[in-house]
Design a protein that fits this description.
Blueprint: E1 3-7, H1 9-14, H2 18-24, E2 32-38, E3 46-51, E4 53-57, H3 66-69, H4 77-92, E5 97-107, E6 119-121, E7 127-129, H5 137-150, E8 155-160, H6 165-170, E9 175-179, H7 182-195, E10 199-201, E11 219-220, H8 229-238, E12 247-251, E13 257-258, E14 268-269, H9 274-282
Parallel strand pairs: 3-5, 3-8, 4-5, 7-11, 8-12, 9-10
Antiparallel strand pairs: 1-2, 2-5, 6-7, 9-12, 13-14
């Protein structure tokens, strides 16, 4: 019940998705951009979903230490959650049109990997100076959010295992929730509550935006400041959502994976975010 299109590396280059191409440069496997569409009769509106799909994250040239790399097959649950949620919509007769964008690649340290200091031009034309190749999620999401914005949806949600600072603050049971529109963020938060998935709302203070400034590009992909990384990452993503489109960001780095059986969770991937997205879309109201 979904329309699906898979863009290969040639199409991705033609679309000038420099964030996705930049992350993929060190890999032997070509990137993909998967687009999904659910088209009901007489929809209440259109919601775009963007999911981070890094199938393995070595960190690139900013190589992760071995203990951290052991878990890095779990850097694609954002894309998996979008796919999982959208696959249920036809059976549930969801009343809203939904478009999904899934940028897919691994992040490896091959001979032509993106170097620190390289500047990438993303899908909406903005340039990003790469200061940390392990901050790759925001680079591929930049292209996904730019593409989602081109369709002028009524609202956007992105889902990503983006930073480790949310679970450091509130534990692995909670996802971080941030966004540009209070009403839309509240809809996501309330949907998560009804679905039984724990989220914690964090601010997006404009006072931190100057930390993202670059001398050679529109912004940097990472800062040297170890404080507030989840918020800074979300502020970076906001740059790629077109003005006037309500946007919410779910950082699911904590609850996407469980080390051992814990309540309703079993060891391994949890599927976190699927229930929240389904609840949000089926109960959607224009923000």
């Amino acid at each position: 019940g979904l329309a699906c299109e898979v863009w290969d590396a040639g199409r991705i280059r033609a679309e000038r998705l420099g964030g996705l191409l930049g992350v993929n440069r060190g890999s032997a496997q070509p990137p993909r951009m998967v687009t999904l569409a659910y088209e009901p009769d007489q929809p209440r509106g259109t919601v775009a979903l963007v999911g981070k799909g890094v199938t393995f994250d070595s960190g690139g040239l900013t190589l992760k230490p071995n203990p951290m790399m052991l878990e890095m097959k779990i850097d694609m649950p954002g894309a998996a959650a979008v796919l999982g949620a959208m696959s249920t919509l036809p059976a549930l007769d969801c009343p809203v049109r939904v478009v999904g964008w899934l940028p897919l690649t691994d992040n490896m340290a091959g001979g032509d990997a993106t170097r620190l200091g390289d500047v990438l031009r993303t899908g909406n034309g903005k340039t990003v100076e790469v200061r940390n190749t392990d901050a790759e999620g925001r680079l591929i999401l930049a292209d996904g959010l730019a593409l989602a914005s081109e369709g002028r949806p009524d609202a956007v949600v992105d889902v990503a295992t983006l930073t480790d600072t949310v679970p450091m603050a509130v534990g692995r049971r909670y996802a971080g929730l941030m966004g540009s529109h209070d009403g839309w963020v509240a809809q996501v938060r309330n949907a998560a509550g009804r679905a039984g998935e724990a989220v914690w709302t964090l601010p997006l203070p404009d006072a931190l935006r100057p930390q993202l400034e670059s001398k050679v590009a529109d912004l940097v992909n990472a800062t040297g400041n170890r404080y507030g990384q989840s918020v800074l990452a979300a502020l970076s993503l906001r740059e790629f959502v077109a003005d006037g489109i309500p946007w919410a960001h779910l950082d699911i780095a904590g609850p996407a994976f469980c080390d051992g059986d814990d309540g309703e969770w079993v060891a391994g991937a949890t599927g976190f975010g699927v229930r929240t997205l389904v609840e949000l879309l089926c109960g959607y109201r224009p923000p």
